[in-house]
């Protein structure tokens, strides 16, 4: 039998996520970030009869209007040891029903395998886009390059000859220039951003799991890519490029540098975080000959009101829609 017990200490939590090969959105720091922005968090370790940790779920909790009470959401989780998928899902269901009762549990596991377990319903109310592109960094650099489009390989080489300096940004005070590039990108592309304080919090609360690479010319940033990284997975959060960076195609050399740097660090997977029908996704698709379809979103109803939720009550659905829009920023 598998049972869930809450975990209130960062080190054993992050150690468990590492041991289980968990996603960076399951790391302690991501939960701390979300608690500063209208979410609650509860972290649960799942143990078998031998008291061995066989799964984990960082549950983000969002209040819902009136009788709907709350949404329990597990981004890119839960995570489990091989053979423990169903016991962990059962234990997660029981824990939420007792400790976090509301309308539903919504999970978006980091797996391509479709979930088939009693009571869990596939949902179209996604927050993280299941269509993505995940590179296998256990392959050689030559194999990864060979899998990229011919034009992408040409632009990687071309932008690499432009005299750009690409380095990791670690100091908090260096983020201001990076955010300047992001503001220019958002203004040009017409999408909204959080306040700058949010991005500083991402960097501070994720700590070493916040990985920012930037391309510089004359010590001024032209482009950046911002990742959240666990021991197994690098996950793109944000990216941007100014006008000069565009003309030099700095994003090609930059992304290739990020990919190869993560590989050198022993990270196994590089997730480009969602594919849409837009120019950014066209750029992403150039780095591989495949796409990745993750399992998607699965809900477990905790209340008869789930039926109303699933049929699209606007005032309730707005919570998910807002979460999705902020994810894209």
- N-to-C CA distance: 41 Å
Listing every helix as H and every strand as E from the N terminus to the C terminus, the arrangement reads: EHHEEEEHEEEEHHEHHEEEHHEHEEHH
The description of the largest β-sheet is: 8 strands, mixed
Q: For the CA atoms, what is the radius of gyration? A: 20 Å
Question: Do you know the CATH topology of the largest domain?
Answer: Aminopeptidase
Mean pLDDT: 93
The portion of residues assigned to helices is 25-40%
CATH architecture descriptor of the largest domain: 3-Layer(aba) Sandwich
Strand content: 25-35%
Low-confidence stretches: 325-329
What number of domains?
2
Full CATH superfamily name of the largest domain: Gcn5-related N-acetyltransferase (GNAT)
* Name of the CATH class of the largest domain: Alpha Beta
Secondary structure: number of strands: 16
Task: Indicate the structural class.
Answer: alpha+beta
Q: Number of DSSP helices? A: 12
């Amino acid at each position: 039998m598998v049972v869930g017990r809450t975990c209130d200490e960062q080190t054993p939590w992050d150690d468990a996520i590492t041991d289980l090969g968990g996603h960076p959105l399951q790391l302690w720091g991501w939960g701390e970030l979300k608690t500063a922005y209208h979410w609650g968090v509860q972290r649960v370790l799942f143990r078998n009869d031998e008291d061995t940790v066989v799964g984990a779920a960082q549950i983000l909790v969002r209040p819902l209007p009136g009788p709907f009470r709350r949404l329990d959401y597990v981004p890119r989780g839960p995570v489990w040891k091989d053979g423990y998928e169903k016991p962990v899902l059962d234990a997660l269901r029981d824990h939420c029903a007792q400790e976090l009762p509301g309308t539903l549990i919504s999970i978006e596991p980091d797996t391509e395998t479709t979930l088939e377990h009693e009571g869990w319903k596939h949902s179209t109310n996604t927050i993280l886009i299941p269509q993505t592109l995940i590179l296998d960094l256990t392959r050689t650099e030559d194999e990864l390059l060979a899998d990229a489009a011919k034009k992408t390989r040409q632009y990687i080489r071309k932008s690499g000859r432009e005299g750009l300096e690409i380095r990791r940004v670690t100091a908090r005070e260096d983020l201001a220039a990076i955010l300047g590039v992001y503001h220019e990108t958002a203004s040009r592309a017409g999408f909204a951003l959080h306040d700058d304080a949010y991005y500083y919090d991402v960097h501070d609360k994720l700590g070493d799991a916040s990985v920012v690479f930037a391309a510089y010319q004359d010590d001024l940033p032209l482009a950046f890519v911002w990742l959240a990284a666990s021991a197994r997975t690098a996950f793109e959060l944000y990216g941007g490029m100014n006008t000069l960076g565009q003309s030099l195609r700095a994003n090609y050399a930059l992304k290739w540098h990020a990919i190869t740097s993560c590989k050198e660090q022993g990270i196994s997977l590089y997730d480009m975080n969602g594919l849409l029908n837009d120019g950014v996704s066209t750029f992403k698709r150039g780095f591989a000959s495949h796409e990745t379809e993750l399992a998607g979103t699965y809900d477990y109803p905790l209340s008869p009101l789930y039926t109303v939720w699933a049929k699209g009550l606007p005032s309730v659905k707005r919570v998910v829609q807002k979460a999705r829009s902020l994810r894209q920023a």
